[in-house]
Amino acid sequence: MSIFLFERNDEKSIINNLRLLIHMSLKSIELLKEYMSCKDKKILKEIIKIEEEGDEITKNIRINLEKAFLPNMRRELSRSAELLDETLDSLKHAAMLYELLKGELDKYLKDEIDLVLMISVDMFIHLERVLDVIEKGGDLDPIIKEIKDKEKFIDDIYQNRIYKYLINLEIVSFWEGKILCDFIDYIVNISDYIEDVADELQIIYLHTK
């Protein structure tokens, strides 16, 4: 059974805008990977522009929620939009910090970051499947489990591989080390935001069962 209780344009608009934020995040990840290989400033500007567009979409979701969905669903939907907006912020800040790094990532770190981004892409795809269940019905539990398992995998990569590698990495200066650590944190935090969005949407799902 669908939990998309109202099929008016107002409700569809909210869901479509949440999907749009997911697609914009996927586009930003693709651009960030490209930027990491060439540091083309046009790509950086495009990532920043997407983040600014995300702010507007998030604001519109909040405004339109005043006339859409049941009141007890609005908090979770508004929070979901804010968290998706945070993923665009993280990608923008990661790109801006990468610009400040004097050199390129060494092969080990680049491979680990590429892996984290690839898993994050997969998590976003599963998150869109959560919206499919909200619109059309279905079993949410296996999708939520996939998202949580992947987030746990990224945590493991960060704590047991990246972090341990960083401890022994020779750094030229304090600021070079801080920028590198902050860059990695912004990349890793994306999976936390995706998991939090899934949790917010699951609350709506559970309330309607």
| Total domains | 1
- Overall shape: it is globular
CATH homologous superfamily caption: Phosphate transport system protein phou homolog 2, domain 2
CATH architecture: Up-down Bundle
Largest sheet: none
Total DSSP E strands: 0
Level-1 CATH class name: Mainly Alpha
What's the mean pLDDT score?
92
Please count the helical segments.
6
What is CATH's topology name? Methane Monooxygenase Hydroxylase, Chain G, domain 1
Please state the CA-atom Rg, rounded to the nearest Å: 18 Å
Question: What is the succession of H and E elements?
Answer: HHHHHH
Query: What is the beta-strand fraction?
Result: under 5%
InterPro entries: DUF47, PhoU-like_sf, Put_Phosphate_transp_reg
Family: Belongs to the UPF0111 family.
Pfam families: PhoU_div
Protein name: Putative phosphate transport regulator
Task: Describe the fold and architecture.
- This is Putative phosphate transport regulator.
- InterPro entries: DUF47, PhoU-like_sf, Put_Phosphate_transp_reg.
- It comes from Methanocaldococcus bathoardescens.
- Belongs to the UPF0111 family.
- There is one protein chain.
- The chain has 209 residues and is mainly alpha-helical.
- The chain has one domain (9-207): Phosphate transport system protein phou homolog 2, domain 2 (Methane Monooxygenase Hydroxylase, Chain G, domain 1), CATH 1.20.58.
- It is built from six helices and no strands.
- The termini are close together.
List the topology elements:
Layout: H1 9-38, H2 41-64, H3 71-100, H4 107-136, H5 141-167, H6 174-207
Helix pairs in contact: 1-2, 1-3, 1-4, 2-3, 3-6, 4-5, 4-6, 5-6
